[in-house]
Amino acid sequence: MRLVIINANILNELGEQELSQITIEDGVIAKVEKAGQLGQENAEAGTQVIDAGGRLVTPGFIDMHVHLREPGFEHKETIETGSRSAAQGGFTTIACMPNTRPVTDNPDTVRFVLQKAEEAGLVNVLPYAAITKSELGRELTDFAALKDAGAIGFTDDGVGVQSAQMMKDAMRQAASLGMPVIAHCEDNSLVEGAPVAEGIFARKHGLKGIPNESEAIHVGRDILLAEATGVHYHVCHVSTEQSIRLIRQAKQIGINVTAEVCPHHLILSEEDIPGLDANWKMNPPLRSRRDVEACIAALEDGTLDIVVTDHAPHSEEEKAKGMQQAPFGIVGFETAFPLLYTKFVATGRWSLAMLVQRMTAGPARVFGLEAGRLEPGTPADLTIVDLNVERTVDPCVFASKGRNTPFTGWKLKGWPVATIVKGKLIWNDAIELAH
Ligand SMILES: NC(=O)N[C@@H](CC(=O)O)C(=O)O
Ligand SMILES: [Zn+2]
Ligand SMILES: [Zn+2]
């Protein structure tokens, strides 16, 4: 089976757009050639042709931090609806967190997630497994068995591992298996029921505030433990200037640490929260403008390696409980690229190549995935993006079951229009199919 994408603008080594033609055979990239006209050899019967119409074609986006909610919270999202939402956001590979019910702390649940993802037949789904049983922080899971079942790393995302000894044991074990530890960094003793960050908004509304140190204390502790154990330590959703300072220093002295940041922590500060609307409540919380600037600079200089969405769907009833009671989390797949393109690339602060790198080759390198590059011999996971079309964010058209976003009504440019996984067009919004 051959698929040819013509009139594809791809980013060359210089980061410039170059009109190209991509030939895919049996789900694998076979050729990437300059010029966009359909060659004679491809005109033969049996070749499917997609005319990208001069739109940008990138390696499929990779999101290494998402919540698919199945098993256990299917009213929030399922592996199928989450995969569809990912595809609609241009993502072709996603790594899902284990804070399901049951928690993905046993090989059967890892296999269940993989099975459901295969049945959905959409994006590549990579499951993480929990560090501790039920994410309670008391007893380590069976790392070797979880790895054998297909888990790609260990994390208790949703909560921080409170005990340093537990974290050190986890890192030792993960290191011996060549697996990464992915950490949600949060010291509970400093948080205690606060729904938003310390700052102007919390004071104005008489709410308890989450201090920056609650994150950075774990980052600092874990960097020392990573140094001692030699594990690959990856920091989840970094949101503070202090964490960044620690990660930057750790990288300088050669400790094996990597880190991610979410679009909302690059764009919104606590001062932007319009009122007591829980669609602005997420963990980590929106911090100060100073923290936002530190996150942007750190993604630019490589201290923060990659962008992830932390796609965290919740039902409308749950989010209607108000700022104090509602669960933390916002959806992210379907707005991630347009948000970052509009805010940072269209404004001239970042190159398009930088943004694409942080969402493709970057995550592939950090997690050792065979993805993220438009090279012959690699799986044909591709995203077609229309950089010119402008649309208003409308949660009603999300493929996700979650509608919980603070970006409703934002006018954004740079929308993904088609997603290809292993040579199969799994989502298409705008491309005319020729034969
Ligand atoms: N980020 C969030 O605000 N919520 C996540 C948990 C998490 O990522 O820590 C969730 O599972 O809802
Ligand atoms: Zn988390
Ligand atoms: Zn998360």
Give structural notes.
- The chain has helices at residues 79-88, 107-120, 143-149, 164-176, 200-205, 213-229, 241-252, 263-267, 289-301, 316-319, 336-345, 352-359, 361-367; strands at 2-11, 17-25, 28-34, 47-51, 56-59, 61-66, 91-96, 124-127, 181-183, 196-197, 209-210, 233-235, 257-261, 306-307, 382-392, 411-421, 424-428, 433-434.
- The protein has a five-stranded mixed β-sheet, with no helix packed on it. The protein has a four-stranded antiparallel β-sheet with strand order 5-15-16-17, with helices on one face. It has a four-stranded parallel β-sheet with strand order 9-12-13-14.
- The radius of gyration is 21 Å and the shape is globular.
- It is built from 13 helices and 18 strands.
- The protein is 29% helix and 22% strand.
- Helix 1 (79-88) links the parallel strand 6 and strand 7.
- The chain is an alpha/beta fold and 435 residues long.
- The longest helix is centred in the middle third of the chain and has 17 residues, at 213-229.
- The chain has two domains: 2-57 and 379-434, Urease, subunit C, domain 1, CATH 2.30.40; 60-367, Metal-dependent hydrolases (TIM Barrel, Alpha-Beta Barrel), CATH 3.20.20.140.
- Helix 2 (107-120) packs parallel to helix 3 (143-149), helix 4 packs across helix 6 (213-229) and helix 6 (213-229) runs parallel beside helix 7.
- Bound molecules: N-carbamoyl-L-aspartate and zinc ion (2 copies).
- One zinc ion (ZN) binds next to loops.
